[in-house]
Design goal:
The structure is a homodimer. By secondary structure, chain A is of the alpha/beta class. Chain A is built from 11 helices and 6 strands. Chain B binds a DNA duplex (30 and 30 nucleotides) through helix 8 and helix 10.
Chain lengths: ~220, ~220
DNA sequence: CTTCCTCTAGGCACTTCTACCCATACGAAT
DNA sequence: ATTCGTATGGGTAGAAGTGCCTAGAGGAAG
């Protein structure tokens, strides 16, 4: 990548923008565009299609969430980074759902911003380590391990292996072939699993298998 | 927590242990125990039940993985932190499966170790931001983002929204209801998506949707 | 105006999965 | 020996999804 790249920064505090601009402009071949609210940020993203957008969450007119959501809906080719002081789990989870590629806490070292820009530019994710905790919990569903565990522990070994293979998107026929058993047996195992876990509906079992396959 | 706490550090390089000890002993009320291989580390953990154990992965006799696995199996009440230079995704994933609470890269700032100790002591997870990328991908099941992207850009907006809802395990009927269109239209969108992405088979589309739902 | 794409909707045959039944065989526990 | 759980196999009905067609309405581009 030897071209110039554009980065939009959006924050309602001029001082923050100033500081960010100075840091980011130490990077080679980089153009910084500033926005003081969400609407302006979205306009800049639409018109200048920057590679990155560093957004504050709390901004006038449109929040960082609003901007990220629009970017997502319109399929704009920009990687969004949230730069915020919110370290609440809900805020972070909402951010991940909105498809942001980076999440940097303002309280952390300023060098983190540059590390984040570098990582996201290469297509990776970057999260402030302070909140990596949330991500682990988010994915392993550790917020309520009690009732999940109780359900899973009811399963017999055969049911467990079937469930593992369901999680890999195999059809019943494929599972039957790989385990050298009848497809009817696979059917029965699935039914028993659904009974034990209280699952109903066409894809409930697959949904469960995928969400919990790290616990299998 | 006003008691003394014990921390085991294990690394086969004396210089690394020396450096770690000096940094960690700046913390109040902290006792550092050193091990130069995995076996010794495990023995120290069993006998002194420390709060934390900082383990190198590559060590003689027992690797950090071996130690973490035994700690897990025996239910020893210690939080394991891996301190390593491995930034490969597989190594990290294996570490997460072994139940480690922290994963710090040696290449990163030494202050990260202290941050990690603080976070894990409070019951949180801590990951070097360089590898938070892996965690995000681990959970959204992204292993090959490159060629997928090319296919995704072929989709029309309507197809994209259907695909998003497929990723949430909704049935065609639910999708039709939410979008106020006929279930046949949803069928058609799915078929077109499969055509464009070259997907075949019963669950290929759902598999794709789930693996790529962060890119939608 | 014609052509092309998108979104909409439907038909039809087929496969896959769900939700109920049922039976047999084996081993463990009582 | 009987009972229980587990694994295995089957039947039937219906719901859901796939694959491959046709076709009209609306818009954009030529």
């Amino acid at each position: 990548m030897n071209e110039r790249r554009t980065i939009v920064i959006a924050d309602d505090h001029p001082l923050v923008r100033k500081g960010l601009r100075q840091m980011i402009e130490t990077l080679p071949e980089t153009i910084v565009l500033e926005a003081e609210n969400g609407e302006e940020a979205l306009r800049l993203i639409r018109e200048h299609h920057p590679a990155l957008a560093l957004l504050d969450i709390e901004m006038p007119k449109m929040t960082g969430f609003d901007v990220a959501k629009r970017v997502n809906d319109e399929g704009l080719p920009v990687s969004v980074i949230f730069l915020t002081m919110f370290k609440e789990e809900q805020v972070f989870n909402k951010a991940m759902d909105t498809g942001v590629k980076g999440y940097v806490l303002k309280e952390n070292a300023i060098t983190e911003v540059l590390q984040c820009i570098a990582a996201v530019s290469e297509g990776r994710y970057y999260l402030s380590p302070t909140i990596s905790d949330f991500l682990v919990r988010r994915n392993s569903r550790l917020s309520s391990p009690a009732q999940d565990n109780s359900g899973l522990s009811l399963l017999t070994p055969a049911e467990r292996s079937v469930l593992k293979m369901v999680a890999t998107m195999k059809t019943n026929q494929q599972i039957a072939d790989e385990l050298n058993i009848s497809i009817k047996t696979v059917h029965n195992h699935r039914n028993h699993i659904c009974d034990k876990l209280g699952l109903r509906g066409t894809h409930a079992l697959m949904k469960f298998a995928i969400e919990n396959n790290s616990q299998l």
